Known about the structure:
Elements: H1 3-10, H2 15-28, E1 34-35, H3 47-57, H4 70-84, E2 93-96, H5 98-110, E3 116-121, H6 126-133, E4 137-142, H7 153-159, E5 164-170, H8 182-193, E6 199-203, H9 219-222, E7 230-235, E8 248-251, H10 254-266, H11 273-284, H12 288-308, E9 314-315, E10 324-325, E11 328-329, H13 335-344, E12 347-348, E13 350-351, E14 361-364, H14 369-386
Parallel strand pairs: 1-12, 3-4, 3-5, 5-6, 6-7
Antiparallel strand pairs: 2-8, 7-8, 9-11, 10-14, 13-14
The structure holds pyridoxal-5'-phosphate.
Pyridoxal-5'-phosphate (PLP) is lined by residues 39, 98-100, 124, 170, 174, 203, 205, 235, 237, 243, 248.
Amino acid sequence: MHSHTTTDALIPTSPILAMARRAAALRAAGHDVIDLTLGEPDFAPPAHVVDAAMRHAHTSLGYSPSNGMPLLRSAICAASLRDRGVTFEDDQVTVGCGAKQIIFNTFLATLEPGDEVILPSPYWASYPDMIRMMGATPVILSGLMDDGFRVSPEALEAAITPCSRWLVLNAPGNPTGATYDSDQLDKLAQVLRRHPHVRVLSDEIYAHIRHDGRAHASIRKVAPDLHDRVLVVDGVSKAYAMTGWRVGWGLGPAPLIARITAIQGQNCTQTSTLSQLAAAAALDGPQDILTERNTLYRQRRDAAMVILSGSKALEVAAPDGAFYLFPRLTGTPDDQAMAEQLLEAGVAVVPGTAFGAPGFLRLSCATGLDILSEGCRRIIQALEGKA
Ligand code: PLP
């Protein structure tokens, strides 16, 4: 019976999914709970994507190549040129069941026990758990709210050891929305040039979700000379509101891509053929929906900021991108106890501890303006009632 303990420690459940499940169970039992846990757009996928999927569903859909269907690979390369200004060849792209599986397969392909992965915090909760599942060690670089939660070149330099295998960069970041401009990326690249054994996993899944109106900057574009050790990760989940379709991809050096593909071939072979056809339609079709939705995300962010910043119980910075708010609790360091209290008060959020940042809370703005505003009001009421 106790053997479960070891297994559970090695294969932890995502704390985000765990909180979302609790919120869903309470709602199913008839409780009035506003769920601000999941990073899941509340929009439908673009209509032309659904139309394409309906059309293709009537055709015979067989297995497809483990690195993705040729038409999707070509759509990804074209989108990368359009959106990032970077040209990738066909053997530099591989497709998986979401960005998440690409990241998992990448770590599986490259990490061994004793290896280190440099992980700026606050981080997306799955990175450290995946790294530990490979027997490797996450080396956490704590980001400061006052520095926009960015990793500095000095901190990066100091963290690199002979065992460092990867630096994980996630911008716009989950949970903080932190972004890097080209100059900041260039300074990180200067450090990386001195340490050729360190690769960069650049998770750009929120590249299209910006509130500051600035263009996305990718380290792959800023430092083209690092092309043989940068893996760019992206997908359709967030930009096109296609989380459940499970399509993500990696863009990087051909030998690494081949290893990631080999692992994909040995587990689920490929992501759904129908989903791949839909993802190609999303990338090839009109892109104005991205701007329209960005405007809505920004309105939500601004409305939530107005409510939250009206209380001294929270300190909240305006994120540049992604669709989360990451306020600091000023009255208590115990974010986990506070998340429990908030759940009782009818609003579900994820405690900052899940992201390596105790004392913070993550709120997802991927929900309608009225619901989000009501959720924020409940948070303030609960926090101030407490104070
Ligand atoms: N990377 C980050 C930073 C995320 O926040 C998420 C989803 O929450 C993912 C990757 C996974 O995205 P996908 O749905 O493509 O697997």
